[in-house]
Each structure stands twice: as C-alpha cells, then as structure tokens.
Amino acid sequence: MAKTILIVDDSASVRQVVGITLRGAGYDVIEGRDGLDALAKMQGQKIHLIVSDVNMPNMDGISFVKGVKALPNYRFTPIIMLTTESAEDKKREGQAAGAKAWVVKPFKPEVLLNAVQKLILP
C-alpha cells in the first residue's frame, strides 16, 4: 500500500511540483493550502510524512508543526520543511517545533525524495 504524504504550501505551483515528484515516486499525496487547511484535512487519516512551507497565510509552517505535534495520532509523523527560508534561526525554530529536515526552495526533486525516503517508515 502506498504511503501518504501531506504537502502544505500556499503556492499551488509548488504543491503541483512537489506532488508530481512524490506521486512519480509512488506516494499518495494530500494537499493543504496552509496550516489550518492541512490540519483540517489530517483528521482521522493515516499520514506517513508531511512536507510543509514555512511562510503561509492563516497559519505559518512553524505553528502548523507545533499543531501537528500536539495531536496524539500525528505526534511522531516526520515533517520536512520546504521553504525559501535558509536562516539558521528559522531552522532552529523549525527543529525545536519538531521538523526533522529542512529543504530550501528551489529544490531538486532527488534531494526532496532522498529526505522523504530517509524519514518515511517502511
């Protein structure tokens, strides 16, 4: 059975590119427009990994990560931050919130897939 990955980004084009990359590698993909939209879509679904932007309207990526980690069913779900942010303090903030990896945009598909494969449970 395919693993399900949630993509959270306010940019439709980024969701599309990431979605194509992940679907091409055999993953099922759910998309969220921002942290609030993504949290609403997560309820009750088995999600194996999350790829989230940092800068989004309504609920930013760091707040979203904290929100996910507060949910018992998703406390151990690995999260990759996919963002234009490369500042060390933002990375530390993301890691403190619970993000496991940090991929800077524009990204190479193989870099993202490599991070996904390292974090997703077999």
Automatic annotation (TrEMBL):
Gene3D superfamilies, sorted: 3.40.50.2300
Keywords per UniProt: Phosphoprotein
Pfam families the record matches: Response_reg
InterPro entries the record matches: Bact_response_regulator, CheY-like_superfamily, Sig_transdc_resp-reg_receiver
Protein name per the record: Response regulator
Organism, as annotated: Janthinobacterium fluminis
Residue ranges constituting the Response regulatory domain according to the UniProt record: 4-120
Signal peptide: none
4-aspartylphosphate modified-residue sites: D53
